[in-house]
Design brief:
single chain, 5-stranded parallel β-sheet, 8 strands
């Protein structure tokens, strides 16, 4: 099943992109793409500014106590690493930190926004291959520090310029607990992270900014710094899973169909990087 799905995704990417004038994609998800692509982070993982209107009639009351409120709103808990976040928060509580933890899933977006607005820290996801999607940018819109875990920081910085790198608290999954603890313990650091992320949102991640950049792209004015070659991608950490799981999936594909089953023979260096990763220890 995994083997056939890999082949199907590659076919779909090829078919859709053959008609496109421009392809906009996250570099760390671009393994199946061919030809120059636009770095999606340059466009911004935008959130509609009008969502702020949802909060005007909100019934929440600003909090003035000394407890730290941490919010996590996973769309799919098993993909977002929610169980690990819960364990981390519980360990911090046992250390004596006064933490209120709230987790919501499957609720209207208005409830998510209300919870973000009341929170001090937002937990995004544990295994991300980007600096954060719409949920992280909702935190940015409301000036909250957002913790995002992932294996892709080195590769992201290769492709995404500092200007377009959302200043979420992005760290390796093994470092997430230390990062959350720092945010809990250091109020000045926490507030500064939220402020810088909000500044990024106002400049790059709102709908008006994204619309201007889309118009620029369709007009044919694409800066070279926005472009990348998928053949240069060396990322092997995947998305939505611990690296041991990703390694086992790659190994299964290789055992089932050999190196060509990865469907990236047009990118031999990327293919070889995945093969080396699959052969590593759990």
């Amino acid at each position: 099943m995994l083997l056939e799905r890999t082949k199907k995704i590659r076919r779909n990417v090829d078919e859709r992109c053959r008609w496109a004038d421009h392809v906009i994609v996250n570099p760390l998800s671009a393994h199946f793409h061919s030809g120059p692509c636009i770095v999606v982070q340059c466009l911004g993982a935008f959130v509609d500014n009008n969502r702020l209107e949802y909060l005007k009639n909100s019934t929440y009351t600003p909090r003035n106590n000394r407890r730290i409120r941490i919010f996590h709103g996973p769309s799919l808990a098993e993909v977002k690493g929610s169980s690990v976040f819960r364990e981390v928060v519980e360990r911090l509580r046992l250390k004596g930190y006064p933490i209120d933890y709230v987790e919501l899933s499957g609720v209207p977006n208005t409830e998510i926004l209300n919870e973000i607005a009341q929170s001090d820290i937002v937990l995004d996801e544990l295994y991300s291959d980007t600096f954060g999607g719409s949920f992280a940018m909702e935190g940015a819109m409301l000036g909250k520090p957002v913790v995002t875990g992932g294996y892709g920081l080195d590769e992201l910085t290769r492709f995404v310029s500092k200007e377009y790198s959302a200043p979420v608290n992005y760290c390796h999954p093994k470092d997430v607990e230390a990062e959350i603890e720092r945010l809990v313990a250091d109020k000045d650091y926490r507030l500064d992270c939220g402020r810088r992320l909000n500044e990024y949102y106002l400049k790059h991640a709102n709908s008006k900014s994204a619309a201007r950049k889309l118009i620029q792209i369709v007009s044919g004015d694409v800066p070279q710094t926005w472009l990348f070659d998928p053949r240069d991608v060396r990322y092997v950490g995947g998305f939505g899973g611990e690296e041991g799981l990703v390694r086992r999936c790659i190994r299964y594909i290789l055992d089932s169909g050999g190196p060509s089953a990865l469907c990236i023979d047009d990118k031999p260096l990327t293919r070889d990087a995945l093969i080396r990763f699959a052969g590593g220890n759990e």
